[in-house]
């Protein structure tokens, strides 16, 4: 049973790498060269047949200009809750339809909303704590 879940994670990783490669408009050969891995090995990763090391994932992420953490999550190395905001920012950064200025503005807005939600959550917790103390 564990093998199936690992294979599922590896397949999901491969699909994600392929999608990111295509969005970056890179051929398999180009990405393999940029990431310093062989064409067949990268092809096996994309098809979900191989589970690359963290080092190889980092090389692929660098070549694709995405966070290594997003690949670590898909490979099952990191928990997705650890990097949620980073993935949103990566998605904004990779969208070719946006200008650099628009990307910067969106990231700033996103960070301000997330910050407000964190602050609101902290305020709510504090109010609930004080309400319990008063009762």
UniProtKB/TrEMBL annotation:
Gene3D superfamilies reported in the protein's UniProt record: lambda repressor-like DNA-binding domains
Keywords: DNA-binding
Boundaries of every HTH cro/C1-type domain copy: 17-71
Domain of life assignment: Bacteria
Pfam annotation, one family: HTH_3
Gene Ontology CC annotations of this record: cytosol
Record's signal peptide: none
Molecular function as annotated in GO: DNA binding; DNA-binding transcription factor activity
Name of the protein in its database record: XRE family transcriptional regulator
Organism of this sequence: Aeromicrobium phragmitis
Taxonomic lineage from the root: Bacteria, Bacillati, Actinomycetota, Actinomycetes, Propionibacteriales
């Amino acid at each position: 049973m564990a093998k199936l879940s690992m294979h599922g994670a590896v397949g999901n990783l491969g699909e994600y790498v392929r999608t990111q490669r295509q969005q970056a408009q890179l051929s398999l050969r180009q990405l393999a060269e940029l990431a310093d891995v062989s064409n067949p090995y990268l092809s096996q990763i994309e098809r979900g047949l191989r589970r690359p090391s963290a080092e190889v994932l980092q090389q692929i992420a660098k070549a694709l200009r995405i966070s290594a953490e997003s690949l670590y999550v898909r490979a099952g190395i990191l928990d997705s809750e650890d990097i949620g905001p980073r993935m949103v920012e990566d998605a904004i950064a990779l969208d070719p339809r946006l200008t650099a200025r628009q990307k910067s503005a969106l990231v700033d807005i996103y960070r301000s909303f997330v910050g407000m939600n964190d602050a609101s959550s902290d305020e709510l917790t504090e109010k609930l704590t004080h309400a319990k103390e008063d009762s």
